[in-house]
Design a protein that fits this description.
The complex is a heterodimer of chains A (382) and B (180). By secondary structure, chain A is an alpha+beta fold. Chain A is built from 11 helices and 13 strands. In chain A, α6 packs antiparallel against α11 and α10 packs antiparallel against α11. The longest helix of chain A has 19 residues. Chain B is mainly α and 180 residues long. Chain B has one domain. The N and C termini of chain B lie far apart (37 Å). Classes of the chains: A alpha+beta (382), B mainly alpha (180). The interface between A and B is large, with 95 and 76 residues.
């Protein structure tokens, strides 16, 4: 979407606003000491104390937890947590998988409520250090959200850092060689600037749950489907695959260009938008079924066969490949065919090319989102 | 140095310039240093609450500091005006892409404040929509909607101004990691 425009905008940033420009040493010293002095004067000991506990507390406990987690990964097999490129033999082609999911979706009850409620676990993979001492950690966040479908309703969202740990046994070994730190200094993929890469500390230990509430912004148009749509519009989407496709494509900006690769680009776009519809949106069962049928007719969608999602639930994955500046990526949708529902969406680095992930093994995940619940509720969240 | 001091310093080093640049784009240079100071004072006091990654949280704090800041409020439009005035720079036989960037900056200066903010968070600070949503306090879904609208409006503004010899065309295609 307007990728060139956004790139031009990124490049247009006035140089004095470059976030990678060094801070003047005197300014840095002054600001740091002012910030840290301010607190001791105010004597806000409780939160300081909590902070010390939060991560000073027993490296042993954290290490033990991480060790258990790593052991689970080993015994659970690579696919469940860090999906690899090697798939079991593909028993089903993408079309069969998607049509079966469509059948599953159409059998689901057709209900609505005051709030569309979703629970998901998002897992990001980050590089720590580099070279022989470098390794990869997986950091997980549980998110829960309520989207209002009632006048005066507000958005609710709840988040919790579930902790972070080395992604694979090899990563765990490298982590232990570094003294098993309880905080990982991850390298940030700073996107829009040259200069040194930034580091971001990620705690191994889980964090607190945070709940926020907000009024719907930008009117009631709360979902993106290639265009801004309301919950009501999402509910009113066509139940016929070709009409659904046409409805989505009206908003495809690239469909009137004359580039030779247009059909491919269009289908990649459709896959992405439709996957979002399937994973995030409160569409009626018949629309979800139409969405699966529509995906079944797209170019470039292939089946990866039976997989386990990051929570270990069995499913079938379909995927498309996207060419990006950091390398080829695979966008995967893991489906529960019986229910016609999404279990997980994932972005996998197929061919690392540039950036901090250039040294990652092909098939390494970049991010995964696993959907634990998607349902309508009527009681107001609290 | 204690662990929390080390952590705080790391957060400061990773994020300070982002917070400063964000404050400049919202309230102008005159208040940016104060906003940075206040933001990091809050961060130190609430270090246990600072999530990973810290940047969206910090920008959210800076946003509140700015909102409560009288002078920042008064200067809200100054940065936009500054962007719009960029046309005054020497033109001559300026390279095409430079002209294009200039046109985009000027168009950015014509957008409503909240849309300009979103575009800056994403394009200049490299925030993913989910993280930008944390900054402005809405759901990720709503953020995507607003961002989409802001992009379209920016595109229209660029095309309307037509300052660049070559219009910037939307190009749909690959969505890389930051969109996921």
């Amino acid at each position: 979407m307007n990728r060139d425009l956004m790139r031009t905008l990124a490049e247009a940033r006035p140089s004095e606003l470059n976030p990678d420009a060094p801070v003047d040493a005197a300014t840095r010293a002054g600001e740091l000491s002012r910030a840290m002095a301010a607190t001791s004067a105010e004597h806000t000991a409780p939160s300081r104390r909590r902070s010390r506990l939060g991560w000073g507390l027993g490296a042993a406990a954290v290490t033990a937890a991480a060790a258990v987690a790593v052991a689970a990964t080993v015994s659970g097999g690579g696919t469940s947590d860090r999906p690899e490129g090697d798939h079991p033999p593909v028993a089903l082609d993408a079309k069969t998988v998607l049509l079966s999911a469509a059948h599953g979706a159409s059998g689901q009850p057709d209900t609505t409520g005051d709030y569309w409620h979703q629970v998901a676990v998002e897992r990001g993979y980050f590089q720590v250090g580099k070279g022989a001492s470098g390794y990869v950690v997986a950091s997980s966040t549980r998110t829960e959200g309520w989207t209002p479908n009632v006048k005066g309703g507000r958005f609710w969202s709840r988040e919790q850092h579930l902790g972070a740990r080395p992604a694979t046994p090899a990563d765990a070994a490298a982590w232990r060689r570094q003294g098993s730190p309880s905080t990982f200094m991850t390298v940030l993929p700073v996107r829009v600037a040259k200069g040194p890469l930034k580091e971001m500390p990620v705690k191994a230990a889980p964090g607190k749950t945070r709940t926020t509430r907000s009024a719907p912004v930008g009117g009631q148009k709360v979902f993106w489907l290639g265009r801004n749509v309301t919950v009501k519009e999402v509910l009113a989407l066509p139940t016929d695959p070709s009409r659904l496709k046409a409805s989505l494509l009206r908003w495809y900006d690239g469909h009137d260009t004359e580039a030779p690769d247009v059909p491919m680009a269009r289908d990649t776009w459709l896959f992405q938008v439709t996957a979002g519809l399937i994973t995030d949106m409160p569409v009626r069962p018949a629309v979800r079924a139409a969405a699966f049928r529509m995906l079944a007719g797209l170019h470039g969608v292939r089946s990866l066969g039976a997989v386990k999602d990051p929570e270990g639930r069995p499913g079938v994955a379909v995927a498309t490949v996207e060419h990006t500046p950091i390398g080829d990526q695979e966008r995967r949708l893991v489906i529960d065919q019986k229910r016609g529902a999404a279990l997980s969406s994932q972005i996998i680095l197929l061919k690392p090319k540039n950036g901090i992930r250039a040294t990652w093994r092909p098939g390494s995940p970049i991010t995964t989102t696993t959907y634990l619940a998607s349902d309508w509720t009527t009681p107001t969240p609290h | 140095m204690a662990d929390d001091e080390r952590r705080f310093t790391a957060i400061y080093d990773a994020c300070r310039q982002h917070v400063w640049a964000y404050a400049v784009s919202r309230g102008g240079r005159q208040v940016a240093d104060e906003v940075v100071s206040e933001t990091f004072a809050v961060a130190w006091r609430r270090l246990a609450d600072v999530p990973e990654p810290p940047l969206p949280w910090l920008l959210g704090v800076a946003r509140n500091v700015l909102r409560d800041h009288r002078r920042a409020e008064a200067r809200r439009e100054s940065f936009a005006a500054e962007l719009r005035d960029r046309g005054a720079e020497p033109q001559g036989d300026i390279a095409e892409d430079v002209a294009e960037r200039l046109a985009v900056l000027r168009a950015l200066g014509t957008l409503p404040e909240d849309e300009r903010e979103l575009l800056i968070l994403v394009a200049w600070h490299g925030l993913a929509p989910r993280d930008a949503a944390r900054v402005v306090g809405c759901s990720a879904a709503a953020l995507r909607v607003r961002l989409h609208r802001a992009r379209r409006r920016l595109l229209r503004a660029v095309e309307r101004a037509e300052a660049a010899p070559r219009p910037v065309r939307p190009q749909v295609g690959i969505v890389s990691e930051e969109m996921s």
